[in-house]
Amino acid sequence: MLPALLSAQTYFYISSIAVDPSAPTDQDNISILLNGDLSDGGAFISSATFNVVGNTVMLNVDADSQGGISVLVPHTETMPIGMLAPGNYTIQISGVNISDNAPTAQHQFTVTGIGTGIDENSVTNLEVTYIGGVLQLNSSDGTQIGGISIYDINGKELHASVLETSSDSIDLNDAPAGVYFVRHDGGIEKFVIGE
Length: 195
Fold this sequence. Notes:
By secondary structure, the protein is mainly β. It is built from no helices and 15 strands. The protein has 2 domains: 12-111; 126-193, Immunoglobulin-like, CATH 2.60.40.3080. The strands form 4 sheets. Strands 5-2-1-7 form a 4-stranded mixed sheet, with no helix packed on it. The protein has a 4-stranded mixed sheet with strand order 3-4-6-8, with no helix packed on it. The protein is elongated.
C-alpha cells in the first residue's frame, strides 16, 4: 500500500509589497501592505503577525480556506508595524499556504530621520539600559538629557518628561514585553523588554 501524498495548497498569492507612508521617517507609524490574491471565495488570512529584529521586519502570514468558487479574489493584508528607528530595513515573509511573488526590491525600505531642531548643548549620545523593570538613561557626554518620550512599537506614547540631569531612571514595571523607543533631543534609541 502506498502512503498518501499530501500537497501543499496556496491560498494567498502575494504579488507586491508596499510601505505606508512610501517614504517613512522615524516619526511615522509605518504599515506594510501585502497585496495579492486569495485563491478562492472561501480563502482568508487566519493569522498575521510581525517581529522586528535589528533591521529585519519578519512577517508571518498564514492563509486557509473554507472552500469556495475557484476565482482569484484581490486582497491586501495590512501589517501595522509602528515607529522604526532610522535605517535600511529588509522584509522577510514566511507562513503557511502563502506564496511570496513580490519583486526582490520591494522587500527593502529605508526609514529616514527628520530634523529635530537639536540644540547644540543637548545630549547627542544617550545610553539606554533596561534592567528589572527600570529604564536607565545616561548622557555619555555629561550634558542634560532634556525632553524624552517613550513609545511602543505601535507608536503609542507610554511616558514623556523633561529630565534636567545627565542621568535618570524611569519605572517601566507595568510595560509588557516588546520593542520600545526613547525619542530625545539627539535622536531615537531602541530598547527591548523581554518576557
